[in-house]
Design brief:
Layout lengths: L11 H12 L11 H5 L8 E4 L4 E4 L3 E5 L16 H14 L5 E5 L5 E5 L1 H10 L3 E6 L6 H14 L5 H13 L6 H8 L3 H8 L6 H8 L7 H14 L2 H14 L3 H12 L8 E8 L2 E8 L4 E7 L3 H13 L5
Parallel strand pairs: 4-6
Antiparallel strand pairs: 1-2, 3-6, 4-5, 7-8, 8-9
Helix pairs in contact: 1-9, 3-4, 7-8, 9-11, 10-11, 10-12
């Protein structure tokens, strides 16, 4: 029996202090993995590579017991949040029951195995002090997008992907133009654009709140997480939001209870910026022109434009912005 991983009851204050410390470090990554290796994009190479550090030849389609020091993390890992509890539970499982499912990896430019999926198993193995991880070598993904989608599909199949993971990773993938637009991302994920938008809104949550929610699986539905986010936006307090998270976990409150708590805190509906909306049309295309007074924002949406008409609209808008 692995007594090193026995759970203990700790105070809310202690948990908050630990989470504050955790929030100062990256949510994803491992300090034992070099930044250059972790960020290297996949490129086309042969199916067999030499691992110069270990003298091992890895062949696609075969399974190896790979030394932990030789493994690199997935540079676009779909999992963005790893809790101490999850890693400790994996360490106990690997120690007591062994590794039931192989991780998967491709071979990098210098012959190093780079994980496609299996980061929790890797972290658990490190926590347990194990020397190796069983890894199946797969063909190198064509690019970062293919790598991300292969890894995420594996997580979804095992029900290990959460809206918090999606929100944090999607924001990064969009900023890096791995997916050029939210619409392209939604199409690739086979999800509605509204669901993608609601999920991305979770990326605005502070790291402390993200970690607090991640420790409690009962909070990891999109509805509940958005209710927590709205509460935080009304209260503008990380501490009060984390206290609510702990209360929800203890009492079994539903997302409607959290919505009611948010409304009570706001003493009414959440205030939204005043806006105006006007229907517009251009060369047969119809759309809307919106203005938002409080933050000085405008939005124009047109659907049904021909290629020529779209180009004309774009040129007219660009002409408004003269270099100062």
């Amino acid at each position: 029996m692995a007594t090193g991983f026995k759970k203990k009851t700790v105070s809310i204050e202690r948990v908050a202090a630990v989470e504050m410390a955790a929030a100062t470090a990256p949510i994803v990554s491992d300090p034992r993995v070099s930044a250059s290796a972790a960020s290297a994009p996949p490129t086309q190479l042969g199916s067999i590579q030499d691992d110069k550090s270990a003298g091992t030849v890895y062949e696609v389609g075969k399974v190896y017991d790979v030394p932990l020091a030789a493994l690199k993390s997935n540079p676009v890992n779909p999992r963005a949040v790893y809790t101490t509890m999850a890693v400790d539970e994996m360490a106990v499982s690997l120690t007591t029951s062994g590794q039931r499912i192989s991780a998967t990896a491709y071979i990098g430019e210098h012959g190093e195995p780079i994980l496609i999926e299996g980061e929790t198993r890797l972290r658990g193995a490190r926590a347990a002090g194990l020397p190796t991880l069983r890894v199946e070598i797969r063909p190198r993904p064509e690019n970062d997008r293919a790598l991300y989608e292969e890894a995420r599909a594996a997580n979804v199949e095992r029900r290990e992907q959460t809206p918090l993971d999606d929100a944090i990773r999607w924001r990064e993938l969009l900023s890096k133009k791995v997916y050029p637009t939210q619409a392209a991302l939604a199409k690739a994920m086979k999800l509605g654009e509204d669901q993608v938008s609601r999920t991305l809104s979770l990326a605005t949550l502070p790291s402390r709140i993200v970690h607090a929610c991640a420790e409690h699986p009962s909070l990891l539905s999109l509805q509940m997480l958005n209710a927590v986010r709205e509460f935080y936006e009304v209260k503008n307090s990380e501490d009060e939001t984390i206290e609510l998270v702990f209360e929800v976990a203890r009492s079994g409150m539903g997302y409607r209870d959290v919505v009611a708590r948010r409304k009570a805190a706001a003493k009414g509906p959440v205030r939204r910026p005043r806006s105006s909306r006007e229907e517009v049309s251009f060369k047969g295309a119809k759309g809307e022109f919106k203005t938002f007074e409080e933050d000085g924002r405008i939005e124009l949406m047109l659907k049904g434009l021909s290629v020529e008409a779209a180009k004309e609209v774009a040129e007219k808008i660009k002409a408004l912005f003269v270099a100062e």
